[in-house]
Amino acid sequence: MALSFNFNPFTGNFDQISTVTINATANGLSIDANQVLSLGLSSTSTTGALSSTDWNTFNTAASSVTSATSANTPNTIVKRDASGNFAASTLTISGADTIASGTMAIGTVNASIINIGRSGATVNIQGTTIFENSTTLNVSNPVINVNTAGGVGSGSSSGINIEENSIATGYALTSGDRNSWQFKAPNTAGLATITPGTSGITLAGSITSGTNSGNNTGDVTLSTANGLSLSGQALSLALSSSSTTGALSSTDWSTFNSKQASGNYITALTGDATASGPGSAALTLATVNSNVGTFASVTVNGKGLVTAAAALSGDATTSGSALTLATVNSNVGSFTNANITVNAKGLITAASSGTNGTVTSFAFTNQDNVTGTVTNSTTTPTLALAPTSSTPAASSFASWDANKNLSANNHINGYTTTTTAAGTTTLTVGSTQQQYFTGTTTQILVLPVTSTLVLGQSFTVTNNSTGVVTVESSGANTVLAQAANTTVVYTCILTSGTTASSWNATLVGASLTAPIRSQVTLNTAAGLGSTAGVVALTFTNNTVTGTDLTYAASTTAGDTITVNTTGLYAITFTVPDQTGGFDGITKNTANTVNVASATISNVLSVVTVIGPASGNHCGYTGLLNAGDVIRFVVSAHTNTINTGADAGIINMAKIGV
Fold first, then answer.
1. Does 565 or 323 have the greater pLDDT score?
2. pTM of the model
3. Among 89, 173, 557, 635, which is least packed by CB within 10 angstroms?
4. Half-sphere exposure of 322 (CA within 13 A, CB side)
């Protein structure tokens, strides 16, 4: 029972209303006489409140059976998959094997296939194994062990039985004494016994079925022996001979194998040569000439045989093997200015020494603008030739004038044309002076070894292809990457080197573009790049037209103009330097390098700055290659630069290809 109260705000007291009681559904609730209410903890046998310990236990458990899985997963509830199967690493079945007489049944109701283990696994089955209704037994091991773990001498009557209607009708078993093998087929009454011995095998006849015992009944007999003999059941085969039929010995086999195969063969020779066999026989040639010896003259018949022989006579005679020429001249010796007599057979029949001759006349005909005079015409003549003029004349010899000059209406240089194929063309001292290139790709041209040339020798290269022709020295150094539609003369200026410095390249003319496609104009110099040591100028105002040139401004490194397209360019430079020194235009140098310290091949133009009011300027017109970087430099980083509105004016334009 419990009491119920209400608080009275007017009196400040609790007014009793009624007593609190607990109905039949307590679920762990209780109340004492003083109206104190309690709720006990729940357990396996008591309903009540859930402790925090039990809450954590229940919270970590699976929320529902839907979290089960058919996969082999630890600490999960097992459920079947869509085919009614589940996986497990180890399946332990208790109950059936805890009773001594228990039986464990697997797949005895509905299963048609029972799989145990996996491919490559080892399956251990212990105890006595009984196979029922086994249709096919596949054994991968090449050896089947029978009577495994049997004792010494226990291998008798061991092997394989064949049952028909629960009766063994055939078998392959060892004998009771373990000396023989016994074989019986299911559909025959006979039994075969094989007894291996040290000198062969013994075959036995029928043995009583079921007891695997019996004796030899003499089943093996001989029909057509041909060397075979039988002693008891020991079979022998004798060797064959000239009077005995039998086996062929290895000795006789080798003898017969070496004999000649049967056929029609020559047994004797007759006619110009005779011989008789059999076997090896001497060949005797018939006598066709009785005059035997060494001779210079012979007679040969149609068969190639010498039928007669005689010695030579006449202008030459023979004696044995020696040949002797007949004497036709008795005056033997050496002769000067010789007078000789030769007969019709080419033999010298007379010889004597003579005297020196004298030229009594000499004729010379003037031709091809060359005249000549003959002196001392009665003894040894002297001919002096001289051109009549150094002026060019048709069909005449050329002549240098008094100043060693040679005149001609036209000097025709050799000409060779090559189609570019991304390959290499190598010139020599004998190559033609004019080299033309056509095509749609690049080519490498290697100039001759300068040590084979003379100073001033030149080669004219015209690139009519659409690609670049890279001209190299014999040492593989680039002299010039010659652009398309250009002609350059390469002149040898040093005959002792193999580098590009041994050559001078001169651009011959250009195809001017109209109007100018690309141009960079700079003015209002801002000073030098602020980085220490930089001698390259920077500018405030710039105008860029076209795509053949790229202008890059840098207040720290100095401004640059980069060539994007190989071609002919013109540059003018008004110097804003007020200090003095050597200022100018450089190509492909560091921003700290002035014209005085730059490699000469990288200096495009230089001017000596005298003072701030001298109006110094310089310029360059020539071929520049794609990738060339142009800078405008003064002599030192400490120089004073005029930064007025008109100070430092630069104009660079592409004027040709």
1. 565
2. 0.30
3. 89
4. 2
> Which of 203-207, 306-310, 336-340, 585-589 is most confident?
585-589
How many Å apart are CA 94 and CA 150, to the nearest integer? 34
In contact, 349 and 341? CB cutoff 8 Å: yes
Nearest Cα neighbor of 508 from 623, 429, 389 is: 623
385-402: buried (b, 16+ CB within 10 Å) or exposed (e) per residue?
A: eebeeeeeeeeeeebeee
Alpha helix positions (H), 216-328? 250-257
Q: How do 192-197 and 519-528 pair as beta strands?
A: unpaired
Helix/strand/coil percent split, the chain, to 5: 5, 35, 60
Task: Give 522's contacts (C-beta < 8 A, 6+ positions apart).
Answer: 539, 541, 542, 551, 559, 648, 649, 650, 651
pLDDT at 120: 76
Pairing of strands 382-387, 370-375: antiparallel
Residue 452 three-state SS: helix
Q: DSSP labels for 253-277?
A: HHHHHTSPPSS----EE-SSEEEE-
Question: From the DSSP assignment, how many helices (H) and strands (E) are in the chain?
Answer: 2, 41
Burial (CB count within 10 angstroms: exposed 0-12, middle 13-18, buried 19+), residue 535: buried
Q: Is 374 exposed, middle or buried (0-12, 13-18, 19+ CB in 10 A)?
A: middle
- What is the distance in angstroms between the CA of the first residue and the CA of the last residue of the chain? 119
The percent of residues above 70 in pLDDT, for the chain, comes to 78
Mean pLDDT, range 464-471, rounded to an integer: 87
Q: Which of 336, 403, 395, 404 is nearest to 369 (CA)?
A: 395
| One-letter amino acid for residue 229 of the chain | S
pLDDT at residue 219 greater than cutoff 60:
no
Which whole number is the average pLDDT over 479-501?
Answer: 88
Structure tokens at 180: 């023989």
Q: How far apart are CA 212 and CA 205, in angstroms?
A: 12
At residue 207, the pLDDT reads 46
What are the b/e assignments for 127-166, b being 16+ CB within 10 Å? eeeeeeeeeeeeeeeeeeeeeeeeeeeeeebeeeeeeeee
Looking at the DSSP assignment, which residues form a beta bridge with residue 297?
A: 310
d(CA 650, CA 519): 10
Instruction: Return d(Cα 584, Cα 596) in angstroms, integer.
Output: 9
The answer on pLDDT for 630 being more than 90 is yes
The confidence band for 343, taking pLDDT boundaries of 50, 70 and 90, is confident
**462, 434 contact by CB (below 8 A):** yes
Least confident of 158-162, 443-447, 507-511: 507-511
Span 249-262, pLDDT tens digits? 899 888 888 777 77
Q: Which phi-psi region, left, alpha or beta, contains residue 320 (left: φ > 0; alpha: ψ -120 to 50)?
A: left
pLDDT category, 13, cuts 50, 70, 90? low
Q: Evaluate if residue 392 carries a pLDDT over 60.
A: yes
Going from the C-alpha of 233 to that of each of 189, 196, 226, the distances in angstroms are 21, 12, 17
